[in-house]
Amino acid sequence: AVVSTQSTGRCKAPEVLSVTLSIAPNPEKGKCECWDKRRGYLFDRHNFYTSVNRLCWELGAADNEKWASCTNLNRVHSGSTIAVSEGLASIKECGYACAYRDDCAAVTYERDTGKCYLKGSGSIGASDVGSDSLDLSCVIE
Q1: pTM recorded for the entire structure
Q2: 27: cis peptide before it, omega within 30°?
Q3: What string of DSSP letters covers 82-113?
Q4: Is 98 exposed, middle or buried (0-12, 13-18, 19+ CB in 10 A)?
């Protein structure tokens, strides 16, 4: 659902998870819609709007030092697994996979297998050599 519609300004409220901005030559150019779902990821020049997933944007802005400080090496996340992605090359890719799901808050990544366990909630759990965990809220703080 749309949280707010603005002609100018920014979608900064914590409940805003994506932004759609109408651009020229759209007659509503400058119209900004703030959404409460992680729906944005599409850049479409033909329909004259840009939609951005706020979490993906902020993850992309985080530097390597931030990612490293938020990654819990050799630890799993205790939350229930909501999905598993395979063949990922890094904890970053695992984090991005999580960012596209409204119900995902954290991940556990197995370095040897490339498996990424998307987690809905929980906290840092047990020690597990070869698995790293990450709470996405840490990366965007």
Answers
A1: 0.71
A2: no
A3: EEEE-S--SHHHHHHHHHT-TT--EEEEETTT
A4: buried
Query: 100 is written with which tokens?
Result: 């596209």
Tokens matching residue 43: 């850049």
Amino acid at 96: Y
| Separation in Å, CA 111 to CA 5, 76, 131 | 42, 12, 6
Average pLDDT over residues 115-133: 92
Angle between helices 54-61 and 91-99 (to 10 degrees): 160
Q: What are phi and psi for residue 137, nearest 5 degrees?
A: -60, -30
Tens digits of residue pLDDT in 2-38:
565 554 446 666 676 777 766 666 666 677 777 777 6
Residues 58, 64, 69, 74: is their CA dihedral positive or negative? positive
Distance from C-alpha of 87 to C-alpha of 4, rounded to nearest angstrom: 38
